[in-house]
Amino acid sequence: MLGPVILAASRSDKMRRFVSAAPGTKQVVDRFIAGETVEHVIPIVEDLTGRGLEVTLDVVGEDITTVEQSYAARDAYLELIGRLEELGLGERAEMSVKLSMFGQALENGHELALANVRPVVEAAAGIGTTVTLDAEDHTTLDSMFAIHEELRKDFPQTGCVIQAYLFRTEEDARRLAADGSRVRIVKGAYKEPASVALQDKAEIDKAYVRIMKILMDGEGYPMIGSHDPRLISIGQELARRAGRKLDEYEFQMLYGIRSEEQNRLAAEGHRMRVYTAYGTDWYGYFMRRLAEKPANLLFFARSILTKG
Fewest Cβ atoms nearer than 10 Å: which of 57, 83, 188, 274? Predict the structure, then answer.
């Protein structure tokens, strides 16, 4: 299986040096990672929002091992929020966070992650924006949903992510839709066992459509995370049937992928949000994306050749 091999490579200093020095690596990184620092990413945010797009920002580096690193992650997001406030970008740029980066996998990780993410959510609310909690592997989800529920008591706009390939997700979607949450739906990219997740692509797509319908018919705010033209078209039709206005749901795509389609949807009046990752740990981020779904290797290569 390629996944475990690539994941092992993501933790290898020798492989990091090899990949970093390889011809063409910088071209890939520059296309999909928006830079290493806040100062690198801000001009990209200004460009995207200037073209009618919205943004969600992810500071990469979720594979932490110490409490001190979790504090550094919190502070990196607080720095980002400060810069967005200075530039008046709060209403167009939100943040996505992985709770593992805030210490979820460490000792007493649930409490640590909640304590670290709360000031980020509070600061985001203070500048008119919000935070979405990214979904990770299935073993972390009960903790993520519990933190989401706790945060929403004071910050009801806090979002979360659900993954269509997990058997549990339709039930999660019904609960979240009834509760009025902001919910991003993705297919799911982690290597999950057949005991908890669908393995067949066609079945995952069918589940994705069922869950989109639950969200569109519900009381929340659906965020359709997909680059699949067919699923995007179905999402538009489900929104129309549910009587939703264009500002009552949104589409989300990754920075550097299908840029022309992002611009087209925005030009049609849809809310189109670009998931934009940045940070110094680009190697770990990139390799983990490949480990989650090795087919992404071909997808990234094709994207480079087509230039969007």
Answer: 83
Between 292 and 39, the higher pLDDT residue: 39
Mean local confidence (pLDDT), 166-188: 96
119-164 pLDDT per residue, tens: 999 999 999 999 999 999 999 999 999 999 999 999 999 999 999 9
Phi, psi for 224 (deg, rounded to 5): -90, 105
Out of 134, 172, 205, 281, pick the active-site residue: 134
Taking each helix axis from N to C end, the angle separating 201-217 and 229-241, rounded to the nearest 10 degrees, works out to 30
pLDDT for 308: 47
Please calculate the CA angle 168-106-114 and round it to the nearest 5 degrees.
65
Phi and psi angles of residue 190, each rounded to the nearest 5 degrees, phi first: -75, 150
The pLDDT score that the predictor gives to residue 256 is 85
Nearest CA to 160 among 172, 168, 5?
A: 172
Asked if residues 262 and 253 have their Cβ atoms less than 8 Å apart, the reply is yes
CA 281 and chain centroid, separation: 16
Give one word for 7, left, alpha or beta, with left for phi > 0 and alpha for psi -120 to 50.
alpha
Question: For the residues of 101-138, what is the DSSP string, one character each?
Answer: GGTTTSTTHHHHHHHHHHHHHHHHHHTT--EEE---SG
Helix residue ranges per DSSP H, the chain? 2-10, 13-21, 25-32, 38-50, 67-87, 109-126, 141-152, 169-179, 201-217, 229-241, 259-267, 282-292, 296-306
Cβ distance 131 to 95 under 8 Å? yes
Q: Which of 186, 200, 273 is nearest to 231 (CA)?
A: 186
Catalytic residue among 74, 184, 258, 271: 184
Other C-beta atoms closer than 10 Å to the C-beta of 107 total 8
Residue 174: active-site member = no
Phi, psi of 220 (to 5 degrees): -95, -165
Q: Is 184 a catalytic residue?
A: yes
